[in-house]
Amino acid sequence: MCEIKIKFEKKFNVSQHIKTDKHQKNVKRKNEQAQRKVQQLLTNQNSVKSDFNMDLCQAMVSANIPLNKLSNNVFRTFLEKYTGKSIPMEATLRKGYIDDIFNSTLDNMKMEIQQNNIWVSIDETCDVEGRFIANVIVGILRPDCPGRIFLLHSEQLDKANHSTICKLFDKAMGIIWPGNIKIAEQIRGQFGTVDELISNMKKIFRKAPYRVEMFKLEAPGSWIEAAIYYCENFRAIRHVVNCLDEIDADSIRKVKLCIIKPAIIKLQKKNVLLFDSLAVVQNVQQKFSLLKGNHGKPVLTKLQTVFEKNNGLGVLEKISKILDGEDSSELIDFSKFPDDYSSDDIVYFKYAPITSVDVERSYSAFKTILSNNRRAFEFENLRKHLIIQCNREENIVQSPIAVAR
Question: How far apart are the C-alpha atoms of 349 and 206, rounded to whole Å?
């Protein structure tokens, strides 16, 4: 160790050297080197992840099975018996595998999305904890078949308005194209305060029977007033009703049958041709045009106003006619289209969705994960579970509010 010669005839010579400072320092240095080698060996062993643990973690998260179920002795014994594997504890999967699966999910999404034309949709909701949660949906536009659809990002917002939504859009596009976002059309939309009003109204009346009773006494309303209220707030009411379990009451089942009409059902379908989706809308327009009387005319006027303000719908109708061969003009006037559109882009709209209803599917998954006994879920962990779960083979759709290339 000290690289010196010692006379070995007498033990004293060896003992004397061992007590010297030089030898003591060399011993200490040698022990430290040995300890570092052991630590490095342990680190290398730990860095080799188990394929079984990885697959088990991904399967449980995708199926929305809480990882703490692994602490159930009966469940562990069952898995060990029929897999012949040592079953990891919840902490092992949570600390060592969730991030890897999440990052792998993002990498796979980026590889599939980056070189394609896409549509993007963003929607927000208020969860049971009173948080504003926004989801970003991305779908691939293909000219010959429906493209895959992904939940790209989920984020908790301080508040929901045009500013926070635009920042979220920019952040989500940065996930796909870091530092090199390729946008062909700016987002155009109006974000009112209606959702904020509804969300805060939920907070006011949550677990407050006195307030509910006061509301009933102060604003009972007539049947006509109630009908107008339901018309103006149909989307919010439908969302509330869909959250209820029809097993609890027959009235819930009846209400669900009332709000899920054929037109809505058709627009909820996946992988529908643009032409067929627009035909449903046009059929509704035609039926509304037959409305008469004091109550029918305002409803028709409201519908017409909504469609007139929706410039994107007009563009999609024009594209649909071109794709279906109805537009016989030899030259297409692209001055009426958003900037940077060409005939090459139009073919990708064949299966473009036009509704926003399917984004609710991502929130349904969100609600399922955030069950009553899992409220302690930190949002960052909840976000990873949601994205892993929603981006398995059965994925979700949403309508385009921007087209990117």
Answer: 43
